[in-house]
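lol forgot to send this yesterday, sorry. struct tokens for the thing we talked abt
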């Protein structure tokens, strides 16, 4: 994707200023909504003519500026397909997608995507640091800034020690963290991640979830995450989009009214947390 100059947004610009100490109600959130990503009546079919297969049917939802939205749904429902359409890598069959009101017809410059298949997105012949620098080359940043961005992102994912190693020398979870660090170094305004924490241990997963919330707060990033983990979706999200299959459609967009800042032990112990997770789980378990 074409690089862009990063300008961190302030908390008040993100619409999350009210979320620091208290529960933000759905009504309050509604009043501050400003859509950054919009998906309207998206339909996506692979193939043409009689062999065409509709994967996504009439999908509509939006992600507001500074929001974290999680998408959950059964395996094979079309989540990765949806993200690739949003990232401008696949054209929609019909319907439209917009970023800040602009129709998405190719990779938007202000967006970074962390692929589900992270191992294939890293170049095996490049070191970790060179993998991170590759998508930043077009920015023509001064050497010192390039270094600072890489150092900061590697530190954020706990991989400062691995900068000179090659991807094939790292564990799956470490490679996944490199892919996340590469996206962070790009400093996108919109970060889209496809099951980003799937192959890391529980402790690292908690740390990366909290990192995700921290970068939202620090940089006002808008974040869309696909996950299979319902607890993770509820912990991270302001809203959870629950998809039903076949073809993919929205079963429900659940508002998550949990206090901020979220805390791995405190938040997950709340009765509201259990209630929200039960709500999402019952939608997924119900025959579609
Ligand atoms: N390039 C493609 N051409 C044809 N069919 C495809 C293509 N990519 C995906 N599909 C099909 O689209 C459907 C949805 O795939 P997709 O990868 O989007 O699902 P998913 O929800 O991300 O699954 P998972 O949770 O397992 O990652 C599957 O039936 C898949 O076989
Ligand atoms: Mg997928």
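and heres what i got for the seq, position by position
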């Amino acid at each position: 994707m074409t690089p862009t100059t990063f300008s961190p947004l302030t908390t008040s610009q993100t619409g999350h200023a009210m979320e620091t100490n208290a529960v933000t109600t759905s009504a309050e959130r509604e009043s501050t909504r400003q859509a950054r990503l919009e998906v309207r009546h998206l339909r996506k079919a692979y193939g043409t003519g009689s062999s065409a297969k509709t994967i996504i049917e009439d999908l509509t939802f939006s992600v507001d500026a500074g929001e974290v939205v999680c998408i959950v749904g059964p395996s094979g429902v079309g989540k990765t397909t949806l993200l690739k359409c949003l990232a401008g890598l696949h054209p929609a069959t019909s319907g439209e997608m917009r970023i800040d009101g602009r129709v998405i017809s190719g990779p938007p410059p202000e967006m970074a995507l962390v692929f589900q298949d992270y191992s294939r997105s890293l170049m095996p012949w490049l070191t970790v640091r060179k993998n991170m620098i590759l998508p930043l080359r077009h920015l023509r940043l001064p050497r010192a800034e390039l270094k600072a961005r890489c150092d900061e992102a590697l530190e954020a994912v706990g991989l400062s020690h691995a900068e000179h190693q090659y991807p094939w020398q790292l564990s799956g979870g470490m490679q996944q963290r490199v892919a996340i660090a590469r996206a962070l170094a790009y400093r996108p305004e919109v970060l889209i991640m496809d099951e980003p924490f799937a192959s890391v241990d529980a402790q690292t997963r908690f740390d990366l979830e909290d990192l995700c919330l921290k970068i939202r707060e620090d940089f006002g990033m808008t974040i869309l995450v696909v996950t299979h983990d319902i607890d993770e979706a509820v912990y991270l999200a302001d809203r959870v989009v629950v998809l039903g299959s076949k073809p993919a459609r929205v079963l429900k967009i659940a508002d998550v009214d949990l206090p901020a800042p979220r805390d791995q032990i405190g938040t997950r112990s709340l009765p509201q947390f259990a209630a929200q997770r039960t709500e999402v789980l019952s939608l997924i378990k119900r025959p579609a």
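Residues 14 and 66 are 4 Å apart (CA to CA). anyway ping me if u want another try
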